[in-house]
Amino acid sequence: MLSATFKVHPAAAAHQRHSVCPPPQFRAPIGTAMPTRRLSGAMLSIRNAVASQSVESITAAPRTLTFPILVNSCTGKMGKAVAEAAVSAGLQLVPVSFSAMEVPGGKVNICNREIHIHDPSQSERILCSIVKDYPDLIVVDYTVPDAVNANAELYCKLGLPFVMGTTGGNRQLLNKSVHDANVYAVISPQMGKQVVAFLAAMEIMAEKFPGAFAGYKLEVMESHQATKLDISGTAKAVISCFQKLGVSFDMNEVNLVRDPQEQLAIVGVPEEHLSGHAFHNYHLTSPDDTVAFEFQHNVCGRSIYAEGTVDAAMFLHKKVQSGASKKLYDMIDVLREGNMR
Hints:
Order of helices and strands: HEHEEEEHEHEHEHEHEHEEHEH
CATH architecture of the largest domain: 3-Layer(aba) Sandwich
Strand order of the largest sheet: 2-1-6-7-8-13
Radius of gyration: 22 Å
Shape: globular
Helix content: 25-40%
Organism: Brachypodium distachyon (Purple false brome)
Largest sheet: 6 strands, parallel
CATH topology of the largest domain: Rossmann fold
Structural class: alpha/beta
Keywords: Amino-acid biosynthesis, Chloroplast, Diaminopimelate biosynthesis, Lysine biosynthesis, NAD, NADP, Oxidoreductase, Plastid, Transit peptide
GO cellular component, one term: chloroplast stroma
Number of domains: 2
Number of helices: 10
Pfam families: DapB_C, DapB_N
Number of strands: 13
Strand content: 15-25%
CATH superfamily of the largest domain: NAD(P)-binding Rossmann-like Domain
């Protein structure tokens, strides 16, 4: 039996192949209204906010490259992780972000920096002020799917280079907005560098060896936090590659594991990562059951995505500074560039 296993996180020890069984019944609210907030008082001075920060209080890596970066939105788990990774990389975190979520005092603390949170309705007015203070600004977007296109149109209107890590929205319109505005951007639904490299390898294999796995049976299990109700976009991309390789498989056959107890007992997800993980297992079996291939990538936490996003921002900054003719990029472009941390 041949076995190929790909692991992304050391916390996920190798475990026996999971049998694919019908996913447990799972129900959760489809939509929850997000509380909105309006800040009282005059708009905070960006210059004063920056001046009040203590640079010495921040522990950062040696600064081989630095530039201002604004993370929208720092109130979300992914946005906060990116902001922390940016500071660790030595980038200048702009102390402003946008969110409709209610936060105590209208600000959050990230790496000993106070990030002032403003309602999205104020974003254009405040961003106009920020652009004047930070001419080399790169914006990173981790908001919500419904805000993707409106946010991108605003960044394009203001000529702001941006990294779109938020999934969803109208992706065709998103790309068109960037193209029409001639603005620099990195757009990718998957920011994990190693996962992107794995996907790229799968796509190359599917292109070079179509039908190589004809007749093989495919079993897919993917486990994510309970709040994720749909099939992972990464899983869909990998399955698409297997289909090109000759495997017959229906997306409805994917075993979606969302029950925490099953994730602990069967999948092997560490308890501390039940609220944020991505475990994928793809098992191929030959028609006569004498050969098996297993592909597995397990991610605990959000650091892999945060680090990849910061690399994408650094990549984009270099392209802007060099005046590159190409403006729209994805994570494959970032990987091809090399020299990542």
